[in-house]
Amino acid sequence: MVKNRKGRRKSTGSMKKKAADKTESDKEEEKIPTPISSSSDESDSEDSMPAGSSVEEGTQGVSRLFSPYRTLGIVSHGPFYVLPNQNSSNAMACVAIGERFHMLQCDRLHPVLVSHAVPAGPGDKGPQTIAHLISDNSLSISIVAHGPKSAPRHVTMYQRTQPVSTKAICDSKHWTIVDLLHLGKIKQSMAGEKEGKKENAVLLAAILSMGKPLPDDGVPVVGNDNDDSDSDSSDSDSEEDKSESDPSARGQIVLLVASRSGLMVHKRIRLESFDSFCPRVAIHPPTYVNKIVIGGSDYKTSKEALVLVNVKSGKMIHKFKCLAKEDVTADVTSLQQSPAIDTIAVGTSKGMVHLINTKYDKLLFTLRHKSKNGNAPRITSIGFRTDGSALQYGIAPMAVGRSDGTISIWDLTPSKDRDGNSLGRTLLSEIVKAHGPGGVHKLQYMPKEPLLISTGTNSNKIVMHLFDSPDHSGRILRQRNGHTAAPEYIRYLHPGAGAGGGVLVNTSDGTDASACQILSTGGADQTLRIFSTVRSVLDKEYSQGKGLEKRAKKLGLENKTELLLPPVTSLASCETRSRDWGDLVTIHKDHAFAYVWSSKRGAQSGPILRQDGWNVSSMKVPPPVSEHATSVTLSSCGNYALVGTKSGVIYKYNVQSGNPRGTYPAAASLKKEKGIRKEAGDIRRTFQALEKKMKLSNRASNIDKEEKDRVQQAAIENRRQAKLKVASHSGFAVTGIAVDAVNKTVISVGEDAKLVLWNFKTHAPHKKSPYALPAAATKLCHVRDSDLAAIALEDYSALLFDCSTLSVVRRFGFGARMDSHTAPITDLGFSPDGRSLYTSSLDRTVRVWDVPTNSCVDWLGFNTAPTSLTISPTGEFLATTHYGKLGISMWSDRSYYQAVHADGAAAMKAPAQMDDPAPLAEVENSEDDHKNALARMQSSANASSEEQVEEEDEEDKGLATAKEKGLITMSGLPPAHWKNLFHLELVKARNKPKEAPKKPPTAPFFLQWRPRVAVDGEATLNPETTKTEEPVKGDDDEWNAAWSDDENDKGFGDDNGLPPTESDAKREREIETADTTVAKKRKVTHYRSQLAELLDRCASQKPIGGKQFQAVTDHIATLGPSSIDVSFNSLCSGMHDLEGGLPLLVLACRWLLEACKSRERFEAVNAYLHRFLHLHSNTLAGIDDFPDDSKEGESDYLLQQREEAVKYITLLRKEQHSSSEALQNKMKNTLCLLRHFSRMV
Fold first, then answer.
1. Would you tell me the crossing angle of helices 1110-1117 and 1138-1158 to the nearest 10 degrees?
2. Coiled-coil segments, which residues (predicted)?
3. Which end of the chain is more exposed for a tag (fewer CB within 10 A), N or C?
4. pTM given for the model
């Protein structure tokens, strides 16, 4: 892992000397695990970059433009823990999602809390995965067991969402944590200031297993031993370390105590009395104090094994023998306490569920399960229903989760026939394939409610079933699910101009949450899903037809997967006619048909786009492989869909009817014009008859003419066919299609390295087509507003083609440049304004190109290769999918909410390694969660240290410098900072209250009365102060007294408006009796605002680098529009304030003059100048309009300030006019050159 700058500073000779003096034990004690994300792993970060590159220092977690925002589509990875409440709506479910967990509110299954990533233990490589978790709502703590992949070896305690303490339970890689139990609460003595007091704590039991050895060499199944693995000496002493390597015990119990202060290891128990016992699962029966039941297998006999252990004494009390009677080699995989005392359910790996009585060691009965293929599935979880409705029906339901994804519901009440003979237990219902690949991981009934919560091992789904039907079958009440395979193609539902939508939208145009929806297509799961970037409860899967489950069952299929469409390879959407018919068209892998979908209905709704003669039925001959679809697009009107094929032919369809509307190029059958319909009385029949007679009269000459015409037409047809063959993608796959905004031109690219422009109506190629590309094209993205097309090539570069001028205008990442991709480009897209191009590549990077300057302005690096990307219609977010990851990663563009200077910045030498974004909690009116969300927007949950962030901010805040002297530079500030200065009056008018403030009600009796304020809120006067009238003072005296800090000034009393008290009068007498020879104390300088203070300070200092008021410009850039207005307004209050305000106006004019001359931050400085003149225009215009008699009474200083003000206002006017005129001339010259060059093409 690349070290930061702070780490390099510390690598001095003195520190090396100190490090050499440390012993090995001291070094081991210093190894404290710290929370990291999966992307910050040392080995992964080294392998994630292309050859010859390294992570740019100071950019860990964030790039120049983007920072992690959130992850979509990750719901569950299997383990969960239910925190019951009075009812199911208030209950919480703590669900593991990889290296994090989130709390779901059971009323809508929406996340309310998301934890930070679990810390990696010493020696662990790769991302961490949570295997077991327990949560306690009274202490607000959660305890998770985690480790690399499926080998948990560490336990971490969380205080809400923050990891507090981590303990390495098993240092050796032979051991793994197979289960985690909640044993109850205990009292624990506190340390420190509260020594002697006790606090509540949770007692936990971690079950460790050494795994079953292989019969050949005895190497453990779980992991390989590593002699160099690090160990935590604080967790266990030398005797415990010796016990871990002791092969006489293959099972251990580690007792842990978790409290708000931390996590500690209480003791370890070795199962030495049963040395061949390999634990797998355990439970703590409620009525068994200090005892746990552990299930597993005996590796010598390969049969089930069940033991009872007293955790207080550390002894094995009993070894159950009732299971030894079963002559089946199996393992105990699941245990669950039944509502009946002394009765537990035992699930095995051979599909059997045993109900045993633990008190008498007796097997009550056995339930057997078989899958459709005849194999016995593994029992993964068991749950018992305890609600009152089951008792009313006289049933005792038990749910059994299986490894094949099916949930079986049994009635444990023995049924009898008419003769009273027992018929065994009844299978009430089965939920077939409730969870996809990997089967059911865990299920649990809600206490005293007919609700069953279940999760799958790899299904990425959590489901809540409700059992309220008379036949006791369950129906889905709520569910949240995502892709079961990594998504490979994503697009915003209604994209903006950057994705070819043709609509430039932003928040000011009324964009609502309906535009924040991402269409995602998975590879192996064959589904099309839509994810909301605002609320996860709006996520859903598009339906591919009604009754697929029943149809699959009728056809004898295992599940509906075989009836689903092949994986989606590309899609196109258009919202123009979304209310009338389908607005989405998809093509599929190795499939010739295109399908129409409706985003309004959320289903496949519409005709199948196919040619006449193509068979839909799978029982007939399918279309040839050359007709398989490779690309698709929709016209801007939403009426036509164009589908490219492997043979190079482009088919055109009507979206509403599904009928074909021709091909590109036109087919031979469509080239012939339809014959003219002959009607009686048509004059054309008369002309044809006359022509026939003339041919008969001069038959010999007509024969020669017809022969010549035939030869001439054949030559023309041959030339046309040759031109058409050159201008088409004959024999090569069409990799990209686009249609312009007016349905005039069709753009297509293919594997033959050609770009062809077609006439949309006549289906004929453009007269200048084809255009030869430098390499074969793989992707195409078109912007309808500017008519620019970006093309990804096989040589890892991208070019920009201007369809209006028919020329290549840009080439990105070409040659041996540092800013070129080193692997094929997987996807590309434009920003909404068309100024930025985003490209993703298999070299695990995403590049952001600035189109006007043809430069790479940002370079993002990832741990896995991005497979697809899309840009939000507002341009604020970038969404990416990655190889092997189920979630959709979203990145926020920091230039929308803070200053980012990309222009003129140095070229990037290495990509910024990005941290994986975390899912966001979706709860309203929660201050803590909003703070956490904002923190994650700035950086990821496990971002680098504060010093790194400060260094990055210092680098990002650098002002863009002009490459040549005299050039104009922009401020890089958000547009709202300076644009709103022109409309502040409008904003104030809109924010003005519609109603006058109402009179407050009468105050209660317990509120104290304040002086001069009545109980009803009206102001009152003190009768003593109304007896004597105060002399009327002039405006200047009142103004001076208001702004004076002198204690001798009179007339305004105290701040509270009360008359002077006796102490005030005494203080005044003491001042009057002071030494009369001392002059009157000078007034203390009181600045009206921070801007006035900065102007005065900068004026008294020497200029640095020719800039004297640079600090003023930097200060104004940090203020908002309202603060800028208040600061400018406080400089001078009008003509009556010229004595104190005129010098500040002169300093402000000097500052603005210097800012205009520097030509930096051009747009912001002009906005400041506009607001300054708008506020003080009357004062500046009236400076030189005073009559001569009024100037005689003024001081020389004020007259000098008047002259300086007139002088600087004149200079400021000339400078602003000259700079604006120079900018206009440059723009006019540029426009003339562009017009001239466009005419030359």
1. 90
2. none
3. C
4. 0.70
